[in-house]
């Protein structure tokens, strides 16, 4: 499990947040269990898992909900924002069998990056939203690329599409598939970086951004 060993200095959770997390987690399980999932190109991912090779999932922040359900119980380490809304996601993710590493590109970035690198070096698969936690939406920040360069682990891009869904009025237009909706989840082949430095890896962000956008465009309308 990917744990951040650095002591965190966070205020205790309010009773309201604790109850909202419990209710949200229960409601999410009921909703997600009604979805009809179609999975595309997960054979390379299963091969990585069979070899014991850790990997780095990268997907847009607004598409995380079906992926939380799809990979529940996997113990994958998720990079969660230290913003207030990240606490809710963290508690729901823990309840679904994930581990969390706290931090973001704007708060706790260095500690979070080191935590993710340690997790991957220890054999843990991790998940990063390269446009999180506050956007700009669908712009690929270099954190996942730096982790891949430092660890040698491949990046696996993921995109989702839902036949019927709600879109929140948030910066990422967060997607919530409606009950009994058909949901398609597509995986890229593993992407190994040949970068010799973190700076060189970061220069690959525009290419990965276009690949992730193309992966999503390729499944729109297929559900």
Short description:
This protein has 223 residues and is of the alpha/beta class. 39% of the residues lie in helices and 17% in strands.
Architecture overview:
The structure is a single chain. The model is unreliable at 1-11 (pLDDT under 50). This protein has a seven-stranded mixed sheet, with helices on both faces. A two-stranded antiparallel sheet has the order 7-8. 39% of the residues lie in helices and 17% in strands. The longest helix is centred in the first third of the chain and has 18 residues, at 15-32. The chain starts with 14 loop residues before the first helix and ends with a helix. The protein has 223 residues and is an alpha/beta fold. The radius of gyration is 17 Å and the shape is globular. The chain contains eight helices and nine strands.
